[in-house]
Amino acid sequence: MKQEVIRELSTAELIERLDEERKQLTKLKLNHAVSPLENPNKIKNYRRTIARMLTELHKRKLNDAAAAQGTATVNTK
Questions:
Q1: Region 3-67: CATH code
Q2: Under a CB-based contact definition with an 8 Å cutoff, are residues 25 and 50 in contact?
Q3: Domain spans of the chain?
Q4: Which helix (H) or strand (E) holds 31?
């Protein structure tokens, strides 16, 4: 999933998609342990997508905290 798509999701949708991606990654890892995957790079792609989602959630939390304190917000592209 591209970063632009992740930014467009609401926080609730992002949390829901993050949960789905984590479940899918777990399934892929289990399947790969039983028999080799046709494309093992899928595991890497899911890990990176999860990291992107977690990064976006962290940025949003920092921006919310900064807005509550009235300080500058975190730079988002």
A1: 1.10.287
A2: yes
A3: 3-67
A4: helix 11-34
Q: Tell me the whole-structure pTM to 2 decimals.
A: 0.84
Contact 29, 51 (CB under 8 A): no
How confident is the model over 48-77, as a mean pLDDT? 86
Closest by Cα among 54, 63, 45 to 17: 54
Residue with tokens 């592209």: 77
Mean confidence (pLDDT) of the chain: 91
Q: Look up residue 2 and give its two tokens.
A: 């591209």
Q: How confident is the model at residue 70 (pLDDT cuts 50, 70, 90)?
A: confident
HSE, CB side, 13 Å, CA atoms: give it for residue 51: 6
